[in-house]
UniProtKB/TrEMBL annotation:
Lineage start: Bacteria, Bacillati, Bacillota, Bacilli, Bacillales
Residues that span the membrane, as ranges: 20-41, 61-81, 101-118, 146-164, 215-236, 257-275, 287-306, 326-345, 351-370
Family annotation (InterPro entries): Bact_Transport_Assoc, DUF418
Ranges for domain DUF418: 239-393
Keyword flag DNA-binding: no
Any Pfam family hit: DUF418
Keyword match Transmembrane: yes
Organism for this UniProt entry: Alkalicoccobacillus gibsonii
Protein name: DUF418 domain-containing protein
């Protein structure tokens, strides 16, 4: 048997995963439409996000409930699933996955760093690379260990919603806006994105200090990002080990239960933030409990729909974008920053939440069409091809 590591063959793909990745890309660009237009931290006190009146308020509420904090968990779940699946396929062939894993992770980290500095500072790929260092060792655990550890980590993040509002008020007591480094970061970012050149924007990303803690602030944000996604990585790996997606008909009952629980808890946890957007506790409830539960609903509903011919046919187009998720994710940043930042079309803080969401949907539709056209002639996306070439140290076949 050959011990040389080989990439996944096109026929080995699970199309439901590609459809879910495509759906995740739609949700991510919609959620990020806030941040492309109003800055990384979406500090609402610094601008008017409702120039179109009620339609902007409705669009914001819809995104807060159904989109925000529900699609990075989906992307994270799929990443963990994909890593576990890839490792299992190597083991089934009697090959070692170690070298491939580390090369793949290193490339992901490099791309994530470059993306965060030169395209958009809302990058998640670098955090995924750091988290993958831990994932490598967790993937040695049995399935039971994965699900227990994953649930504990997700539960710990969810416990942030138990911190009362009075705690935040006490922590902020006596702090003026001028002395708040996060508020100053928001002001400086809005200034550079609405008036600065590309060079000034890159320089800001390299020198800005959102927490005012220097290198310790960067470490804190990295650790927070790692623990924010690690539990979801592990739950994705667990579902892969149990075969719940590759063989959905035998697990249909589980998916139905999770779908209804996810919908009920998700909506109950995410709706309150729309009535008081300044509440830190409701924001934590929306992000750390509502987000993962609504993600559970989306995954379950997708899996169940994909078991029917009609549902599979309706969701099929999403798979084209999903097969090129790496390319499309990065190009979303390129396109959206060009549309909104001063060095591009300069629409920053000018069109409102509703129009910003329409732009995001239009960009995704264009990506969907271009992905289908590209995959008519090529086996994978251009950046997927480069990633595989570096991962496997061989040039994969690109043209069909």
């Amino acid at each position: 048997m050959s011990q040389r590591s080989n990439p996944t063959l096109e026929g080995d793909r699970i199309i439901t995963l590609d459809m879910l990745r495509g759906f995740a890309l739609l949700g991510i660009i919609l959620a990020n439409s806030f941040h492309f237009q109003y800055g990384l931290l979406y500090e609402t006190s610094l601008f008017n996000q409702y120039p179109n009146g009620g339609i902007d308020r409705f669009a914001e509420s819809a995104i807060l409930i159904f989109v925000q904090a529900s699609f990075y968990p989906l992307f994270s779940f799929l990443f963990g699933y994909g890593m576990a699946l890839q490792k299992q396929r190597f083991l089934d062939r009697g090959q070692s996955f170690n070298a491939v894993f580390w090369r793949r992770t290193l490339i992901l980290g490099i791309v994530g760093y470059l993306h965060g500095v030169y395209l958009w500072n809302g990058d998640i790929l670098l955090a995924y690379a750091w988290t993958s260092v831990l994932l490598f060792f967790f993937l040695m655990m049995p399935a039971r260990g994965l699900v227990i550890t994953g649930l504990i980590l997700v539960g710990l993040m969810g416990s942030c919603a138990a911190v009362p509002e009075s705690f935040y008020e006490f922590a902020e007591q006596g702090m003026s806006q001028e002395s708040d480094p996060t508020y100053q970061f928001n002001k400086d970012e809005i200034s550079v994105l609405s008036e600065g050149t590309y060079g000034e924007t890159v320089e800001f990303r390299q020198t800005a200090d959102p927490l005012g803690l220097g290198v310790f602030g960067n470490i804190f944000m990295t650790v927070n990002a790692i623990f924010g996604v690690l539990g979801l990585f592990l739950l994705g790996a667990y579902v892969m080990r149990k075969g719940w997606i590759s063989d959905p008909l035998n697990h249909k009952g589980k998916w139905k239960i999770m779908m209804w629980i996810g919908l009920a808890v998700g909506l109950l946890s995410k709706t309150p933030i729309t009535f008081n957007k300044d509440s830190n506790q409701l924001e934590a409830l929306q992000a750390f409990i509502g987000g993962p539960f609504l993600t559970m609903f989306f995954i379950s509903a997708f899996i169940l729909a994909a078991t029917t011919d009609r549902g599979r046919k309706m969701l099929q187009p999403l798979s084209y974008a999903g097969r090129m998720a790496f390319t499309n994710y990065l190009f979303q940043s390129l396109i959206m920053t060009t549309i909104f930042y001063h060095y591009g079309f300069g629409l920053f803080n000018s069109v409102g939440v509703f129009v910003g969401a329409l732009i995001a949907i239009a960009v995704f539709i264009v990506q969907l069409i271009l992905s289908k056209v590209w995959l008519t002639f090529f086996r994978m996306g251009p950046l997927e091809w480069l990633w595989r070439a570096g991962t496997y140290l061989q040039l994969p076949k690109l043209k069909k």
